């Protein structure tokens, strides 16, 4: 019988960056991914983002909401930092969501990524 990880993401919603990184190290073998919100994400260096992405799939939960070009650029940047998932607000509007759909298809040619 093959054992697989549960489809659970560990929410790294703590104030202390060192604590979050230690939790990620400890639990990454047991979870499908790591959820990072702004509370932690704004503290992380590029290297730390990439370290998390090496441990597990990273879910950037920033709920991007802005003008379409800013949302598209933010999602692109999340991908570049190693994220496999990110959130956006549907209230960004149809034009933005169409642009994000195209971006998601383009990024999936490089590696799996979901918006």
What does this structure look like?
46% of the residues lie in helices and 17% in strands. 23% of the residues are buried. By secondary structure, the chain is an alpha/beta fold. The chain contains 5 helices and 4 strands. The radius of gyration is 15 Å and the shape is globular. Helix 1 links the parallel strand 1 and strand 2. Strands 1-2-3-4 form a 4-stranded parallel sheet. It starts with 8 loop residues before the first strand and ends in a 7-residue tail after the last helix.
Provide a quick synopsis of the model.
Helices cover 46% and strands 17% of the residues. It has helices spanning 17-27, 38-41, 46-55, 68-80, 94-108, and strands at 9-11, 33-36, 57-64, 85-88.
User: Which series of helices and strands comes N to C?
Assistant: EHEHHEHEH
Uncertain residue ranges: none
| CA(first)-CA(last) distance | 33 Å
- Principal-axis shape: globular
Specify the helix fraction band. 40-55%
Q: How much of the sequence is in beta strands?
A: 15-25%
Counted by DSSP, the helix tally is: 5
Question: Secondary-structure map with pairings?
Answer:
Layout lengths: L8 E3 L5 H11 L5 E4 L1 H4 L4 H10 L1 E8 L3 H13 L4 E4 L5 H15 L7
Parallel strand pairs: 1-2, 2-3, 3-4
Helix pairs in contact: 4-5
